[in-house]
Design brief:
Keywords: Coiled coil, Signal. 95% of the residues lie in helices and 0% in strands. The protein has a domain of 64 residues. The chain has 110 residues and is mainly α. 0% of the residues are buried.
Length: 110
């Protein structure tokens, strides 16, 4: 009878000591691997960084486009000014030609 009791006690000792060895390994593995919440936080932060970079890039593009629009507006004003001067010159030339034609018509009739 002493022998089966000794075997049972020995079995308990083996099981108990093996449990003590496994617990620290399990805890260390759990600490070593990031949790799902940590992974999600990392992914969320990465997505926010990407969105911020996209927004900054779009703002730069908007500023470039605004500069181009200003430049085009200035060019348009210059062209209008030139066209206005040309139109004024043409209208005065047309007036002079009309006056000359009227004088010629009056001379021809006289």
């Amino acid at each position: 009878m002493a022998r089966p009791v000794l075997l049972v006690i020995l079995l308990f000792v083996i099981v108990f000591t093996s449990q003590l060895d496994w617990n620290p390994q399990i805890v260390n593995e759990a600490e070593a691997t990031p949790t799902l919440a940590q992974k999600q936080h990392h992914v969320t932060k990465r997505q926010e960084d990407i969105k911020e970079k996209i927004i900054l890039s779009q703002e730069k593009n908007i500023h470039k486009l605004q500069k181009l629009v200003r430049s085009l507006e200035e060019q348009l004003l210059e062209c209008r000014g030139r066209n206005g001067a040309v139109n004024d010159t043409l209208s005065s030339l047309t007036d002079i030609l009309n006056d000359l034609e009227q004088k010629q018509i009056l001379e021809d009739q006289s």
